[in-house]
Specification:
- With 259 residues, the chain is an alpha/beta fold.
- It has 6 helices and 6 strands.
- The chain is globular, with a radius of gyration of 24 Å.
- It comes from Lacihabitans soyangensis.
- This is Lipoprotein.
Length: 259
């Protein structure tokens, strides 16, 4: 009987330890999940076909920038980067910032302290967002008069997104572009654009094969086109948009938004 009691006690102790370890592991996983930061990548088209001096384009782009910065710069460690789209997109990083605003743990605070903590956070994150927006607008308005503006290499952004995803952050990419790929030794939509959805789909799936080693699952992609709502289909070719939606989906992106 004594042996049985000892055995039961030992078993209960082991179960208790196991439970504690499981709780610790679960807590660690939860804490790690909470630490997951945003990684926002903005691609500005710096080729001849996009004119940010146009009032409509400039206003649309500035509004979109403010919205995405407000949404994705939330706490310490959130990353914001800008690349230029042109002949050498892969090496065209022009801005990289990491948020420094710490969001205080408000658990257990009374209402007065909670309000003070929220006010401090709002002031700090607001100041940081305004600074990032100012820098982003400067980069958006910057001219590219060099030879690199002759080509538009949008597909070169794929390895950049893949690398960002390896950092285990929530990656969101925003393309401020007409999305007209134009390469001397590749697809050139200025010369030959898809004339139907079926052709766009066929081309996109074939071209995505060039980057099949890059998995963009978990990336979120938005395209901000420089066209007004009353633009003609000749100017804003819907088949070009279809091409990119199919292209990114072929690389694992579940949803491509067009703004």
């Amino acid at each position: 009987m004594k042996k049985l009691i000892i055995t039961l006690a030992t078993s209960l102790a082991l179960l208790s330890c196991g439970s504690t370890e499981t709780e610790k592991d679960t807590k660690a996983i939860t804490t790690e999940s909470l630490k997951r930061n945003n990684h926002t990548i903005v691609f500005f088209d710096k080729t001849q076909s996009v004119n940010v001096d146009d009032a409509f384009v400039r206003n649309k782009y500035q509004a979109a920038l403010k919205s995405l910065i407000d949404e994705n710069i939330q706490s310490e460690g959130d990353v914001f980067e800008i690349y230029y789209i042109h002949e050498n997109t892969a090496k065209a990083k022009v801005l990289s910032l990491s948020s420094r605003t710490v969001k205080e743990n408000t658990e257990g605070l009374n209402s007065t302290d909670l309000e003070a903590a929220q006010t401090n956070y709002d002031m700090s994150i607001g100041k940081e967002r305004r600074m990032i927006l100012d820098l982003a607008v400067q980069k958006m308005l910057e001219k590219n008069s060099g030879a690199s503006n002759a080509e538009t290499n949008i597909s070169a952004s794929v390895p950049l997104l893949s690398e960002a995803l390896n950092g285990k952050k929530d990656v969101k990419a925003f393309y401020f572009s007409d999305m007209v790929e134009s390469l001397k030794n590749g697809r050139d939509f200025h010369k030959v654009a898809p004339i139907s959805h079926d052709q766009a789909e066929e081309w996109a799936k074939a071209d995505a094969e060039n980057y099949k080693l890059y998995n963009l699952t978990n990336a979120q992609i938005s395209i901000i086109l420089p066209f007004s709502p009353n633009s003609s289909s000749k100017e804003n070719n819907p088949n070009v948009s279809d091409y990119w939606k199919v292209y990114f989906e072929a690389l694992g992106v579940s949803d491509v938004k067009e703004i």
